Amino acid sequence: MARPKIALIGGGQICGVLAQLCALRELGDTVLFDIVENMPQGKTLDLAEASPVDGFDVSVTGTNDYKDIAGANIVIVTAGLPRKPGMSRDDLIGVNSKIMTQVSEGIKQYAPDSFVIIISNPLDAMVTLCQKITGFPPERVMGQAGVLDSARFAAFIAWELGVSVKDVTAMTLGGHGDTMVPLVRYASVNGIPVMELLEQKYGSTAKAEEVMTAMVERTKAAGGEVVKLLGNGSAFYSPASSAIAMAEAILRDQKRVLPVCALLDGEFGVDGFYVGVPCILGAGGIEKIIEFKLDATEQALMDNSVAAVKELVGSMNL
Ligand code: APR
Predict the structure, then answer these.
(1) Superfamily of domain 5-145
(2) pLDDT tens across 99-116, in order?
(3) Ligand 1 pocket residues where CB is under 6 Å
(4) What is the number of other CB atoms lying within 10 angstroms of the CB of residue 312?
(5) Distance (Å, rounded) from C-alpha 125 to C-alpha 143?
(6) Residue spans per domain, the chain
(7) Ligand 1 centroid vs 125 CA: distance in angstroms?
(8) What's the rounded mean pLDDT across residues 242-261?
(9) Any idea which fold 146-318 has?
(10) Of 35, 68, 160, 261, which has the fewest beta carbons less than 10 angstroms from its beta carbon?
(11) Cα(104)–Cα(123) distance, rounded to whole angstroms?
């Protein structure tokens, strides 16, 4: 049986890590596309030459021709500029929507049956654009944001409490921007509410709330924190790992419940917009959007985030 095929569009920082993860986990034969001549060929040759050491048999190749993504089962898109210190993700919309238009046309023509995972920013707008141009059904076009935002939230909780990251469950909803909604009420360590553990640690509800608020704010600003430290470019390890978790869930039909930027059809009171919500990811792509009850505060935060997404998407005049 043929191996699955994965196409990575945009051969920069994130893409290099994506390709390495695809190879190390033997997810499938991987093709890396970029408009820069020779660079994707060079990057993948370097990676492929590590195969005897790492012991992977999947192929990893580079290209400047969309024809080579033909037959891809999954396409992951990172094409586009990353932000510089001081920029918001939304500042990238002008230049990246032109790039996303070209990329989406390439995918539509050469990989019409693929599942598409977008990473390029501003995420919520770029996914919307890709779905409009490809015309693919919404269960096949999704954005990676929530897995990463949730991972950041979980990491901060684990570090604060001195517990394994493996035992922390944390989730963010909403857009991939400053208005994202880290869900405090559902954050737990192996089912034990994080707020309860913070209260035990500090012996005070007020202090526990203060510490939690700081972690929530750090989560919302976490991408910018990395951008500022790097000085040139934006996060690449964690976005790549997050998108690979989504791709693996689809390729291996894992039915994972992950926060995904998905096109909503009335769920959470949102109609016709891409917003981060928990979904079941399996062989059918987004197999189900999981709707659950938010309390009044959470719903207000969600509404605020959705309003920001609507404004951003509206600015593209699609
Ligand atoms: N088609 C394909 N690739 C393109 C195009 C295009 N039209 N235009 C630019 N690229 C490529 C660039 O040549 C570059 O190799 O996209 C790649 C982007 O790589 P980096 O600049 O290293 O950016 P990266 O850190 O990988 O982030 C990519 O993901 O998280 C988001 O905000 C981030 O939008 C940015 C994207």
Answers:
(1) NAD(P)-binding Rossmann-like Domain (3.40.50.720)
(2) 999 999 999 999 999 999
(3) 9-15, 34-36, 78-83, 92, 96, 99, 102-103, 119-121, 233-234, 236, 239
(4) 20
(5) 10
(6) 5-145, 146-318
(7) 16
(8) 98
(9) L-2-Hydroxyisocaproate Dehydrogenase; Chain A, domain 2 (3.90.110)
(10) 35
(11) 14
